[in-house]
Amino acid sequence: MVQPTAVPIEQLGAADIVRGVTDGAFSPVDVIEAALDRIGAIEGKVQAWSLLDADGARAQAAAVTADLAAGKAPGPLAGVPVGIKDEFHVRGMPTGMRGTGELPIEPEDATCVARLRAAGAIIMGKTHLPVQGRIPPTRNPWNLEHTAGGTSSGSGAAVGARMVPVAIGEQTAGSNMRPAAYCGVAGIKPSYGRISRFGCMPFAWSIDHVGIIGLSVADLALVLSVIAGPDPRDPTTLPDPAPQADLDAPSIRPPRIGVVRNFFLERSEPVMRDAVEDATSRLKEAGAAVGDLLLPDTFGLTWHLHRIIGGAEGSTYHAADHDERALPGSGGRVGSLLPASYYVQARRIRSWLRVALAEMFADVDVMAMPTAPGPAPRGQSTGDAVLLRPWSLLGFPTVTVPCGLSPEGLPLGLQLVGAPRADYGLLRVSLWCEQALGRLPAPRV
Amino acid sequence: MRLYPPVEKDEALAWLHNEALARWGSVTPELERSLAELAEAMAAVSAVELPESVEPELL
After folding, report:
1. Is the ipTM of this complex over 0.85?
2. Res A331: pLDDT
3. Which chain A residues are closer than 8 Å to B41 by Cβ?
4. How far is CA A22 from the centre of its chain?
5. Are the C-beta atoms of A227 and A116 separated by less than 8 Å?
6. Class of residue A104 by CB neighbours under 10 A (exposed 0-12, middle 13-18, buried 19+)
7. pLDDT at residue A116 above 60?
8. Who among A298, A337, A354 is closest to B20 (CB)?
9. Smallest CA–CA separation between A228 and chain B, in Å?
10. Which of B23, B28, B45 comes nearest A342 by C-beta?
11. Which of A196, B11, B13, B28 is deepest in the core (most CB within 10 A)?
12. Nearest beta carbon to residue B50 from set A206, A304, A348
């Protein structure tokens, strides 16, 4: 089939792919062949995939193509290739996070994977994450000497390199947003409980969030509309229905943006601070009401609470495998020493902070700050999650959008934080900001 | 280790150090760093005065 535009299929976003498939401009089979060609051309350099299921992807694409030919209505993600972080169970595949050696084949999809399949998405395979403390081989598509971030390393790199338009990640500290920012694309860590965690191997139950990395904010909204919503197999899911995919761009009014002046900029490199100033100036020129915002001093507790709650929960989940799998001295290991009263008190303080911080959204639509302290570091470090931990702890929704390039040509991300459970409103503001700031082009790998 | 009256970081670290020795038999420099971070967190949490009506999040 002939492509409808000059943009190669492998560089189309999810919404554009669905439109092309629905209009008959190309088929799901065409989409998957284009994605596999792209992966084949650059995977040797980027190394995003821990398990690429080319045959399975072709079979899924053929089935969706046949359904369309038979007159069935296309699903909301018909023909969209998706990567899945190797922390999630996918039917018929091993889950890499279980460890090394011979791993069991999983009999069932995680809830988010099942919902993707039901919507017509094509599961391409599993993307790399660090396993047992070992950093994966994944490299940043903007500069192969730099990290793609972590722990959703492969998902960030796969989307950044235009192998797939969207991928599933997970964030306990900063694991979904950081790879998205480092790789020059958009990412969302929704409100806690927005997406079911069933079938996602845990790090720390009350801080784990299923996340999405995508080429654009519209793609994030589209995928969120499919995989969010209540799930009886995850009792922490919110009762709200999934947010709608249509962000109704024409109706979005210039937002009120509070630029957080304490805690975040002081933990960032000069190049990142300059990028935030430049980006917020551009947003103001575009019509946003941009003002300064100071968080209360008690916000500084969030990093301590993350250490206590994450340490206690993580060490509990991994209690059986400390000797074999935990790194000596890791935060998870020492968490097992904590008295129960400290864990409970930390959860009380979190409740208290959530209420106090939610009230700050009476004056702003979103808070703005850097996503990471700087661009992706060179070498094996996966970067620093310090600016993301507070929002993972609190469960507030956050989105990252690209806000420029560093002098050495690496992407920088602007983090936007919304009020609790206001994911749809946050996505609308993020779309407005993305349109004002512009998206980054595909990197030359 | 008590939660109240508030503990100082050094006090929490000494307690954690003893617990780690009893649990693992030795304390590596890497483990010592993690213990110091955890002790700082314990001291911070211990020092917070909450309204008595605040409960931990309950489903």
Report:
1. yes
2. 57
3. 303-305, 307-308
4. 27
5. yes
6. exposed
7. yes
8. A337
9. 19
10. B45
11. A196
12. A348
Kindly determine whether residue A350 and residue B57, on different chains, have CB atoms separated by under 8 Å.
yes
- Nearest alpha-carbon partner for A227 in A114, A90, A85, A89: A114
pLDDT surpasses 50 at A253: yes
d(CA A52, CA A100): 17
**For residues A348-358, average pLDDT:** 97
Q: Residue A31 has what pLDDT?
A: 98
pLDDT at A413: 98
pLDDT in tens, A271-313: 999 999 999 999 999 999 999 999 999 999 999 999 999 999 9
A115: pLDDT strictly greater than 70: yes
The answer to whether A173 and A282 have CB atoms below 8 angstroms apart is: no
* Mean pLDDT value across residues A129-142: 91
Residue A180 is inside which H or E element, if any?
helix A177-182
Check CB contact under 8 Å for B38 and A301.
no
- Between chain A and chain B, the number of residue pairs with CB atoms below 8 A apart is 88
pLDDT value at position A131?
85
Q: Residues of B with CB below 8 A from A345's CB?
A: 3, 45-46, 48, 50
Beta-bridge partners for A417: A367, A398
Name all domains of chain A by residue range, CATH numbers in brackets. 80-294+365-437 (3.90.1300.10), 300-354 (no CATH)
Q: Is B38 on the interface with A (CB under 8 A)?
A: yes
Chain A neighbors of B16, CB-CB under 8 A = 334, 337
Contact B55 A351 (CB under 8 A): yes
Which residues 6+ apart lie within 8 Å of B52 measured at CB? none
* Cβ within 8 Å, pair A307-B37: yes
Tokens of A127: 């993307």
Measured torsion, CA atoms of residues A242, A9, A178, A380, in degrees rounded to the nearest 10: 140
| pLDDT for res A317 | 87
Token reading at A257 = 């943006």
Tens of pLDDT along A7-59?
A: 899 999 999 999 999 999 999 999 999 999 999 999 999 999 999 999 999 99
CB A96 within 8 A of CB A50: yes
